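Q: Given only this backbone (245 positions), what sequence would you predict?
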């Protein structure tokens, strides 16, 4: 799914514009993006949930939204994981942008509202159904993460190829957050996605859990990928990220 020469002003690596759409971790595998918070280390999760626990809790969504909408949620999650350019993935970003703010970046620039609506129709869902799916997953995520992260924050990483060399080897950078994008809680996973180029970099931010739409702890389809993925709503904000050597 900006010109990186002006990194501090508007570094689009997390907004995904042109080839620097964090291809390492957005387009290749796990779709691989409020404020970064303080530099204080977050508290660890209380327990690593098993896939059975995650699935059982997630199934409770079905009783709230019905089987058809629940199946749409699972299918949409699969499409998000498979391709950032799919109509379902763009639909999710469009809903996130409309409800919480943030732009949707694609190779040719910023996606228009009309294109977002077109993607929603192409997904096979109308706007009401799409919002039902989006809201159900978000509500479930918040309920789970409030228990897992009692301090209200989660530390996440992202790998980028950094093909234009705009990201330094260390220090801090300001990044423009896309409406919706994927990160990981696992540093080694982020490093894997940063190895597509010798200039690849890993960046780290700390976000409030209310900015997380879904994660490997709250959606079984994401957990099955075993990449500890966290899907973050950018809310149209800029975040201060730390470059991890």
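A: Predicted residues:
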């Amino acid at each position: 799914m900006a010109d990186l020469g002006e990194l501090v002003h508007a570094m689009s690596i997390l907004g995904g514009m042109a080839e620097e759409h964090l291809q390492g971790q957005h387009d290749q595998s796990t779709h691989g993006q409020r404020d970064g918070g303080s530099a204080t280390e977050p508290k660890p999760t209380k327990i690593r949930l098993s896939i059975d626990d995650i699935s059982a809790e997630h199934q409770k969504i079905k009783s709230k939204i019905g089987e058809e909408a629940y199946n749409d949620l699972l299918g949409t999650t699969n499409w998000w994981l498979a391709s950032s350019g799919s109509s379902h993935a763009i639909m999710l970003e469009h809903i996130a942008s409309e409800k919480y703010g943030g732009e949707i970046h694609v190779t040719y620039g910023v996606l228009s509202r009309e294109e977002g609506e077109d993607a929603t129709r192409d997904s096979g869902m109308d706007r009401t159904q799409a919002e039902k799916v989006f809201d159900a997953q978000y509500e479930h995520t918040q309920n789970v993460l409030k228990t897992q992260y009692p301090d209200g924050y989660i530390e996440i990483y992202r790998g980028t190829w950094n093909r234009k060399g705009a990201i330094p080897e260390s220090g801090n950078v300001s990044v423009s957050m896309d409406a919706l994008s994927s990160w990981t809680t696992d540093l080694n996973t982020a490093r894997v996605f940063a190895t597509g180029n010798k200039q690849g970099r890993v960046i780290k931010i700390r976000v409030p859990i209310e900015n997380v739409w879904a994660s490997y702890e709250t959606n079984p389809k994401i957990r099955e990928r075993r990449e500890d993925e966290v899907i973050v709503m950018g809310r149209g904000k800029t975040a201060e990220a730390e470059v991890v050597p």
